[in-house]
Amino acid sequence: MAEIRIEALTKSFGDFTAVAGSNFTIRDGEFFVMLGPSGCGKTTTLRMIAGLEMPTSGRILLDGEDVTFNRASQRDIAFVFQLFALYPHMNVRQNISFPLRVQGVSRREVRARTEEVAKMLEIDNLLSRRVSGLAAGDRQRVALGRAIVRRAKAFLMDEPLGALDAEFRDRMCEELRLLHDRIGATTVYVTHDQIEAMAMADRICVMNKGEVLQIGVPMEVYERPATRFVAGFIGSPSMNFLPAQGGFQAGATAIRVNGASLAMPQAREGLAATDAVLGARPEHITIADEGPLRGRVFAVEYMGARQLVTVDTDAGRLRVRAPNTVRAKTGETVGLTFDAERLVVFDPVSDRAVR
Ligand code: ATP
């Protein structure tokens, strides 16, 4: 078990800053997901935690102990690279026990721990089978077994499901999460896939361009994104952004889009009479005959229980997720109403959400 504390952690490669002064704490037993686009510094952060990369400055504390310059082998942290690169010529037992044999653990303990892990993953009946002949799902369990047999203080995983097709990914997400709940070890999981992050994380850390933008439980980063980048990166289809103006109306702050006033429920300081960017998720806009913002239906995509309606307004193109009971026809003029409670307003200069 381990708490991992990151203090002012920075990594530069020449002039390029890959990680720019991160500060956060990964709690003991937490499933912590680092999310962001390619090149944002997730892997570099993970490699510094593992001891595979030395920071330019800052500190890493493992259960309060400064391990910043400890070697990887002195950290008791398991780095899971590709979950699925098994040794095809070995059997299940040999694959699972490999990390222990490398460590020089006694034969008796290797045997006991391998069998314990196999039982936990319900593959104990396959121990003498070659992995090359196994079904894909069983192979993945073997890979998981090999990853956890070391009983490290923490597990670091870098896009471990990256190479899998969609169906297996879903299954493995579920298995990984269940396994984590059972063994309870601190896990840091890197992905660029927001759906995976939302499904698995206790907390998500969103990064972009070397900076940590927000850390929160999935619902928090979805409902209360700290910046425009976070808002746009999380959620599919993406949040709509519209140019807007802040103002006051009947004593409350209001926001106007194209002259149409959308009253805001809570007063938002810093919003009065300034330019702003309004963020509205597709499911927080309602289509009807009338509404404060009018537009023309550009396209309707049927999605089973729901439909995705694209509407062109004078303020820009919007995507609306509506129930199928709502009639929307291409070319028709409709009215749009916004769920004021759920709107997010961004400062157009800093891109930060105005609370
Ligand atoms: P990806 O998912 O593509 O791996 P990432 O968020 O994990 O993205 P990093 O691998 O941490 O990103 O890389 C962050 C930036 O640092 C990238 O622009 C990368 O090119 C750069 N970088 C990483 N390692 C080195 C290195 N050894 N030398 C120079 N630049 C590097």
Automatic annotation (TrEMBL):
Any single Pfam family the record assigns to this protein: ABC_tran
Keywords: ATP-binding, Cell membrane, Membrane, Nucleotide-binding, Translocase, Transport
GO molecular function, one term: ATP binding
Domain ABC transporter: 4-234
Protein's UniProt keywords contain Transport: yes
SUPFAM superfamilies: MOP-like, P-loop containing nucleoside triphosphate hydrolases
Cellular component, GO, one term: ATP-binding cassette (ABC) transporter complex, substrate-binding subunit-containing
InterPro entries: AAA+_ATPase, ABC_transporter-like_ATP-bd, ABC_transporter-like_CS, ABC_transpr_MalK/UgpC-like, Mo/tungstate-bd_C_term_dom, NA-bd_OB-fold, P-loop_NTPase, Transp-assoc_OB_typ2
Coiled-coil region(s): none
Bilayer disposition of the protein: Peripheral membrane protein
Cellular compartment(s): Cell inner membrane
Family that this chain belongs to: Belongs to the ABC transporter superfamily.
Protein name, per record: ABC transporter ATP-binding protein
